[in-house]
Specification:
heterodimer, A: about 575 residues, mainly alpha, Serine Threonine Protein Phosphatase 5, Tetratricopeptide repeat, 2 domains, B: about 475 residues, mainly beta, Immunoglobulin-like, Neuraminidase, seven-stranded mixed beta sheet, five-stranded mixed beta sheet, 36 strands, about 45% strand
C-alpha cells in the first residue's frame, strides 16, 4: 500500500469526527466550555497534578477551552480520536480485523462525548493509556518491561486514572497469556501491575491524602460533570483494549484455511465484522446523540452571546418547550422589543417559561442569571451566577459565571470584588482580553463607556425588597417603578400576568406602558385587553378604536369556533398565535 | 512537591538578584499589598511576604531589625519570598521591638526607593494553628468545601475533611474544647447529615434531632470540662436582598439552646433557654464553666419583617456537676433597647471580657456590612468597639487565642464578599493594634481563590482525625441517637 492509501483510514476518522462535532454538534461543545475556568497558573496545574488522573484532566480542560469555537474545538476531538484509532490499529497490526477493532474502540469514548455533560478527559485518558501500551510494545526486552511495568502502571494511574492503568496492565497480562513463550517474570510483573491498579486508589487515599471517594479515586479523572455516574463506554473501551491480544489471537486463529474456506466464502467474515462494528457504533451513537439537547445548547449559547435574533430563528425552525429554552426565547423576544407582539406565536408553557422557579441546577440558575441581569435585578443576577457556578457537579468554576460576576460587581461599583474576578479571567485564554480591557476601564474610571454596564447601572433596583419565588410580579413592578424607562421590566410584568391568566392585575398596570407604545399597544396586550373589557362590560366596546374593533371581530370569530368540549383543529390553525388561544387552552 | 519547586525557584532567583541602584526616592509608603505598616505581629507568625500593587519589573525588600543588625532580603518579579528560618530568627531576636521594611520597586527600568514602614513584633506568641472552612460565599448551592488546618508559623495548610469525601454533603461548625484538637465537634449537613464528635481517638456520630428539640443541633460550644457541649437548635431560612449592598439575610424562625452530655448522650436545657417567647442562640461557656453566655431576642414574625429581631447578650449560670441551670437570665448588653443586635459572644480566656458582634438587627451578622466586633468588660459592664480590629465592612465571626492576646476575625473588608481572617493583638485593657491578614506564601493566592475563610478557630496542636473512619461511618449511617432529659 502506498503511504497515501495507508493514511486513508486515519484521515477518514479524523474528518468524520471533525465534521460532526464542528458542524452538527458544536453547540454541545460550547455548552461544556462554559462550565469550566481553565487558568494558566502554576497553582491550577499543581492542584490538578496532586490528584490521580490530574494530568489528563489538565490537558482535557486546556483543550476544552477551545470548545467556545466549535470549529477549533472539534479539531482537538478529532486529533484525540485519530490518535486513539492509530494506537489501537498499531497494537492490532497483525490482526486481520485491525481497522474494525480500532474503529469500534475509538468510537466508544467519542460517542460518550455526545452527552453534553461528558468531559473531554475521557479521550485524553484513553489516549495516554494507549500511548503507554504502545511504548511497552516497543520495548523488545521482556525483562525491562517486567521491571518497569508496575511503575508504569502506577504512573499511568496517577496521570490518567485507573481505567488506562487497568488496560495497560491488562494488555500485558493478556499478551503473556496469548504468547506462551513469554518470560515468566513478565507474567508475574503483569499480575503485580494488576494488583497495583487495585491498590493504587488506597495508596492515593492513605498516603497522598486524596479526599475523594473510592470510585472517584480509582477513576482519577472525571469523565462526566456528573462525577458519580460510571463512564460505561470508557469502561467498555478499557475492557476491549485490555483483551485486544486475546481477541486478535482468537480471530486470527480462524483465518481461512483449506477446510473452512468455503464457510468463509459463504459468510464473508470481513463484511460481517464491519457490519457488526457499524451496527454497534450506530446503536451506541443513536442512543447517545441528542439533537434537541444540542438545539437547547445553541439557544443557551446565543443568550450568552446576546444573539437574540438567532434564538428567535432557532425557535422558528423548531421550538423547544422546556422551561429554560422557553425563558430564553421570551428574553430574546423582549430584548428585540417583540415580546408583546409575538410571545403567543410560540407555545407558551406558563409563567415558569418567562421566569423559571429556582431549582438547584446550573442551567436553570444560569438562565435566571441572564434574565435578572437584563431586567436590572443585579443582586439576583449575581446570586444566580453563584448558584450556577456552584451547581457544577464536578465543582469546577464556570467561566461564564465568573465573567457575569465581574460584570455585576462593576455595575454595583464594587471594584475590589470585580478585580478579583477579572484577575482570575486574566489567566484564561479566551476571556483575558476582555478582562484586561475591563480592568483598564475600572482603573481609568470609564466603566460607563460600556453602554451595557451603564444601562444596567441606571436601571438596577434601588428600593430593597426580598426575592420571593411566588411573587415575582412584585419584584418586576419594583424594577419598573425604580426606573419607569425599564421597558423590559414592564413587558415582563405584563407578560407575567398574561401567562398567569391574571387579567385584573394586567389591566391595573397596562396603562403604565403608554410611554413605550403610544396609542398602539403590542398585539398580545391588546388581545388581552379587548377580551377583558368585552367580558367585563360589553358596553365599553363602543369606545374601541378601529384597530381594537378589528381585533374584537377576530375574537368573535375565535369565540365562534371555540368549544370547550370539543377540540377543533381550526382554532389552533387560525388563532394558535393569539392570547385567547393560550387563555382557553387546557 | 510545591516545596521543592519553590526552593528551586528561590535558588534560581537568588542567582539572578540585581543590585538596586536607586534612581529616585519617594517619601510615600510603597504601593504594596497587603498593608502591614504599623501592624503588630506575633513573634512566631509565618513570613509576611508582600507584593507590588502595580505593574513593576521587580520588587526588592530588605527587612532590618530596629538596631539595624539583622537583615533579611528578598528580590523578585512581583512577590517577596522570605527565607522562613531567617525570618523566625529575625522575629525571635526582635521580640518586643520593631522591624522595618525597606521597599524598592523597579518600573520601566528605574528603581524607586519608598518610605520604610515598621511592624511591631509582639513577644506574645500565637497558637499553633488556625482551623477554618473554605467555602465559596454561597447562597443556596455550596459546591466544594472543606475544613482545613493551617500552621500559623509557616504556610502549610492540611485538609481535615472535604465534602467530596462525604457524599458532597455540607460540612460546618467545627468547634474545639479550649483549643484542644482532640476534642472536636463537626456537623455534616444533607442526606448523610450527622454530628461528629472526636474525643481523643474515639470518633462518634450522632443524630442530634429529638422529639423535644424539633431540630438538629447547630452552633456548638464546648464546656471547659470537655464533657458537655452547648448547642443552639435553630429553624433557619435564607432571604435574598434585591438592592445593593446587602445580599443575603439568614433568619431564625425560632431557636433554643441545649446542652449535650457526651457521657450519657443526653440533651438537657432550661425553660429559660427554650422559651417560646424568645429566640435563644449562639451559646458559649465562660472559661470557668460557671456561666453560659448566649444571645436572646424577643420572638417576632421574622418572615414579615426580617429586621425586627434584635438580640441581647445574656447569660445564665450552669453547674456542670449536676447539669443544672440557674433560675434567672442576666442581660449583659441590652442591644435591643437601642435597636441593635448582638451575636457570637466569645468570653476571653481570662474571663474578663466578652467579645461579640454588634449589628443593626438579626443574628447572622456575617452578611451585615455594618457588623463590628465589640468588647464587654465584665468587671464594670462597659462596652467598646474594638477599633483597630474592625473595618468599614463585615467584621463578624471572631475567636480568641489561648493566651487571650490575639483575636482573629472573619472580615469582608478586602472586597465586600470573600471573608478573610485578620488578626489583631489585644492588650490587657481590651484594645487592639492594627489588624493584619493571615499571611499566605504569596498574597496573590487570595486573588486566585474562590473561597471564603469561614469560622476561624485557633488550635493548640494539629488535629489528628481519622478521616477514613469518618467517611465509613458517615456512609454506613452509623449514628447514635440522643435523648432529651
Amino acid at each position: 500500500m502506498s503511504k497515501l492509501s495507508k493514511s486513508i483510514p486515519y484521515v477518514a476518522v479524523a474528518l468524520a469526527v471533525y465534521a460532526f462535532y464542528a458542524f452538527a454538534y458544536g453547540a454541545t461543545l460550547q455548552y461544556g466550555e462554559q462550565y469550566q475556568l481553565f487558568q494558566s497558573t502554576t497553582g491550577y496545574f499543581l492542584g490538578l497534578l496532586a490528584r490521580p488522573g490530574g494530568l489528563a484532566m489538565y490537558v482535557g480542560r486546556f483543550l476544552t477551552q477551545f470548545f467556545i469555537i466549535p470549529l477549533v474545538g472539534a479539531i482537538f476531538i478529532s486529533m484525540l480520536s485519530t490518535g486513539i484509532f492509530a494506537c489501537i490499529a498499531a497494537l492490532s497490526k497483525s490482526s486481520r480485523y485491525r481497522w474494525q477493532w480500532a474503529l469500534l474502540i475509538t468510537m466508544l469514548p467519542v460517542c460518550a462525548l455526545l452527552d453534553k455533560q461528558a468531559l473531554l478527559n475521557s479521550l485524553v485518558c484513553i489516549l495516554i493509556g494507549c500511548v503507554i501500551v504502545l511504548l511497552i510494545n516497543k520495548i523488545k526486552q521482556e525483562k525491562i518491561v517486567a521491571t518497569l511495568l508496575p511503575f508504569l502502571t502506577f504512573i499511568t494511574f496517577w496521570i490518567a486514572g485507573g481505567l488506562p492503568a487497568a488496560f495497560v496492565a491488562g494488555y500485558v497480562f493478556c499478551s503473556c497469556m496469548v504468547d506462551r513463550r513469554s518470560d515468566k517474570a513478565l507474567l508475574m510483573s503483569a499480575i503485580i501491575s494488576m494488583l497495583v491498579v487495585v491498590a493504587s486508589p488506597f495508596v492515593a487515599r492513605q498516603l497522598f491524602g486524596v479526599q475523594l471517594n473510592a470510585t472517584r479515586t480509582f477513576l482519577g479523572a472525571d469523565y462526566s460533570r456528573y462525577v458519580v455516574s460510571l463512564p460505561k463506554l470508557a469502561i467498555a473501551a478499557t475492557i476491549l483494549i485490555a483483551f485486544l491480544p486475546l481477541t486478535d489471537s482468537l480471530l486470527n486463529n480462524n483465518l481461512p484455511t483449506a477446510e473452512n474456506r468455503k464457510i468463509h466464502r459463504l459468510f464473508k467474515p470481513t463484511l460481517i465484522s464491519w457490519l457488526i462494528v457499524v451496527l454497534t457504533i450506530s446503536t451506541v451513537s443513536a442512543r447517545m446523540v441528542d439533537f434537541d439537547a444540542n438545539r437547547k445548547c445553541d439557544i443557551e449559547f446565543c443568550a450568552r452571546m446576546k444573539d437574540w435574533r438567532r434564538i428567535i430563528k432557532i425557535a422558528d425552525q423548531k421550538q423547544p418547550t422546556d422551561v429554560i429554552s422557553m425563558a430564553y426565547i421570551n428574553l430574546a423576544l423582549a430584548k428585540t422589543n417583540s415580546l408583546g407582539d409575538k410571545m403567543f406565536s410560540y407555545a407558551q408553557i406558563g409563567p415558569s417559561g418567562l421566569i423559571p422557579d429556582f431549582e438547584l441546577y446550573g442551567d436553570l440558575s444560569m438562565a435566571l442569571c441572564e434574565i435578572y441581569y437584563h431586567l436590572g435585578g443585579i443582586n439576583f443576577s449575581e446570586r444566580f451566577a453563584y448558584e450556577a457556578a456552584k451547581s457544577n457537579p464536578d465543582y469546577q468554576e464556570s467561566a461564564r459565571a465568573v465573567k457575569r460576576l465581574a460584570e455585576t460587581s462593576i455595575i454595583k461599583e464594587n471594584y475590589p470584588l470585580a478585580r478579583k474576578y477579572l484577575a482570575m479571567l486574566c489567566n484564561t485564554t479566551f476571556y483575558a482580553k476582555w478582562a484586561r480591557k475591563s480592568l483598564m476601564r475600572i482603573d481609568s474610571g470609564r466603566t460607563n463607556e460600556n453602554a451595557e454596564w451603564a444601562r444596567e447601572r441606571s436601571i438596577q433596583i434601588t428600593d430593597d425588597c426580598y426575592y420571593a419565588e411566588k411573587n415575582k410580579d412584585i419584584l418586576l413592578y419594583r424594577l419598573f417603578a425604580t426606573n419607569p424607562n425599564n421597558r423590559l421590566a414592564f413587558e415582563y410584568l405584563m407578560a407575567y400576568y398574561l401567562l398567569n391568566k391574571d387579567l385584573e392585575q394586567f389591566m391595573q398596570y397596562a396603562n403604565l406602558g403608554g410611554r413605550f407604545y403610544g396609542a398602539v399597544y403590542p398585539r398580545a396586550f391588546r388581545e388581552a385587553a379587548v377580551f377583558h373589557l368585552r367580558m367585563k362590560n360589553p358596553e365599553t366596546v363602543k369606545d374601541f378604536g378601529t384597530a381594537d374593533r378589528q381585533l374584537l371581530e377576530q375574537f368573535y370569530k375565535f369565540g365562534a369556533i371555540y368549544n370547550p368540549n370539543h377540540h377543533d383543529a381550526r382554532l389552533a390553525e387560525r388563532f394558535g398565535d393569539t392570547y385567547w388561544y393560550y387563555l382557553f387552552k387546557e | 512537591m510545591n516545596k521543592y519547586i519553590t526552593i528551586l525557584i528561590a535558588i534560581i532567583c537568588a542567582a539572578c538578584t540585581e543590585t538596586v541602584r536607586v534612581d529616585s526616592v519617594s517619601d510615600v509608603l510603597p504601593p504594596v499589598k497587603p498593608d502591614y505598616a504599623q501592624a503588630t505581629i506575633p513573634v512566631n507568625i509565618a513570613p509576611l511576604n508582600i507584593m507590588a500593587d502595580c505593574d513593576v519589573d521587580k520588587i526588592d525588600v530588605t527587612i532590618c531589625s530596629s538596631d539595624g543588625k539583622m537583615v533579611l532580603h528578598s528580590q523578585s518579579a512581583q512577590v517577596t519570598d522570605f527565607n522562613i528560618v531567617k525570618w523566625h530568627a529575625l522575629l525571635a531576636e526582635n521580640a518586643g521591638k520593631s522591624i522595618v521594611y525597606n521597599v524598592s520597586l523597579k518600573a520601566n527600568g528605574r528603581w524607586t526607593k519608598y518610605k520604610p514602614f515598621e511592624l511591631f513584633v509582639s513577644p506574645d506568641s500565637i497558637d499553633y494553628g488556625l482551623v477554618y472552612r473554605l467555602i465559596a460565599p454561597v447562597y443556596e448551592t455550596f459546591g466544594s468545601m472543606g475544613i482545613y488546618q493551617r500552621c500559623l508559623s509557616d504556610f502549610e495548610q492540611k485538609t481535615i475533611v472535604e465534602n467530596n469525601l462525604l457524599q458532597n454533603n455540607c460540612v460546618n461548625c467545627h468547634s474545639f474544647c479550649q483549643w484542644n484538637p482532640d476534642k472536636m465537634s463537626l456537623h455534616v449537613r444533607g442526606p448523610y447529615g450527622c454530628t461528629m464528635l472526636l474525643n481523643g481517638s474515639k470518633l462518634q456520630l450522632f443524630n442530634t434531632r429529638t422529639d423535644t428539640t424539633r431540630g438538629n443541633c447547630v452552633y456548638p460550644a464546648w464546656h471547659p470540662d470537655g464533657r458537655h457541649i452547648a448547642y443552639s437548635v435553630n429553624e433557619t431560612r435564607q432571604m435574598f436582598h434585591a438592592a445593593n449592598p446587602k445580599r443575603i439575610e439568614v433568619i431564625d424562625y425560632w431557636s433554643d439552646v441545649v446542652v449535650l452530655d457526651t457521657k450519657t448522650n443526653t440533651l438537657a436545657s432550661s425553660p429559660l433557654l427554650m422559651s417560646k417567647d424568645y429566640f435563644e442562640t449562639f451559646p458559649y461557656f465562660s472559661p470557668d464553666g460557671l456561666w453560659l453566655y448566649f444571645c436572646s431576642a424577643k420572638a417576632v414574625d421574622v418572615n414579615a419583617a426580617p429586621d425586627s429581631a434584635h438580640y441581647n447578650l445574656c447569660r445564665i449560670s450552669y453547674d456542670c456537676s449536676t447539669g443544672e441551670f440557674g433560675n434567672r437570665v442576666d442581660t449583659l448588653v441590652n442591644a435591643s433597647a437601642i435597636g441593635k443586635s448582638v451575636s457570637f459572644p466569645r468570653p476571653s480566656p481570662d474571663g474578663r471580657f466578652v467579645a461579640y458582634t454588634f449589628s443593626d438587627y438579626g443574628q447572622f451578622s456575617i452578611w451585615h456590612p455594618e457588623s463590628d466586633v465589640w468588647l464587654l468588660n465584665l468587671s464594670d459592664g462597659t462596652t467598646h468597639r474594638i477599633d483597630n480590629l474592625n473595618s468599614g465592612d463585615v467584621d463578624s465571626y471572631h475567636s480568641w487565642s489561648s493566651n487571650g492576646r490575639w483575636m482573629v476575625v472573619s472580615s469582608r473588608r478586602e472586597n465586600g464578599l470573600f471573608t478573610q481572617p485578620f488578626f489583631a493583638h489585644i492588650d490587657t485593657c481590651g484594645n487592639a493594634t492594627k489588624a493584619f491578614r493571615l499571611p499566605l506564601r504569596s498574597p496573590a493566592e487570595y486573588d486566585a481563590m474562590f473561597y471564603s475563610f469561614n469560622i476561624p478557630e485557633f488550635i493548640a496542636e494539629p488535629i489528628r482525625l481519622n478521616v477514613r473512619e469518618l467517611e465509613k461511618k458517615v456512609e454506613k449511617r452509623n449514628l447514635q441517637n440522643l435523648t432529651f432529659e
